[in-house]
Amino acid sequence: MLLLSCLLLPAVAVMLKIRGYARTKSFLENLLPAKHPDKKAGNGPADPTVTIPRMVSVAARYGPYRANCLKQALVTWWLLARRGYPAEIRFGVRDSQQVLPDAHAWVDLDGVNVSDNPSLQAQVLQFK
Asked: What is the spatial distance between Cα 120 and Cα 113, in angstroms, rounded to a whole number?
């Protein structure tokens, strides 16, 4: 999963730069297998809803390509969706005293943030 994440993050970055978010997400959706029953998040040590976001985060931080939250969210969402998890990408803006607000993207599964620090989610005004 770590190696796959290291390969997918720069590929998604290139697609985003060339095609934009909507067309990149649509392209990734077309690569998903035929629909199968939605799975619920588990809580075991080998639970994909834990290991996939962790491996994507490690790849983004320590791999050859340093990816921001949007790229990480797209890769995490796609890897979970490939396994039948009904993950959703969420967007938000942190209200700060800076001239430009800080934007953020993450992945929710059954209403729970699975892709990054939940305390960060409390600081962000969410959009669907």
From this structure: 10
Q: Is the pLDDT of residue 119 over 60?
A: no
The Cα–Cα gap between 97 and 89 comes to 26
Helix, strand, coil share (%) of the chain residues, nearest 5: 50, 15, 35
HEC per residue, 35-70: CCCCCCCCCCCCCHHHHHHHHHHHHHHHCCCCCCHH
Sign of CA dihedral 22, 24, 27, 29: negative
The DSSP H or E segment spanning 34 is: none
Supply the range of the domain harboring residue 54.
2-127
Cα within 13 Å of Cα(31), Cβ side: 13
- SS3 label, residue 93: strand
Total-model pTM: 0.84
Structure tokens at 32: 């998903």
Strand partners, 92: 104, 126
Based on the structure, what is the number of domains in the chain? 1
Question: Mean pLDDT across the stretch 61-71?
Answer: 94
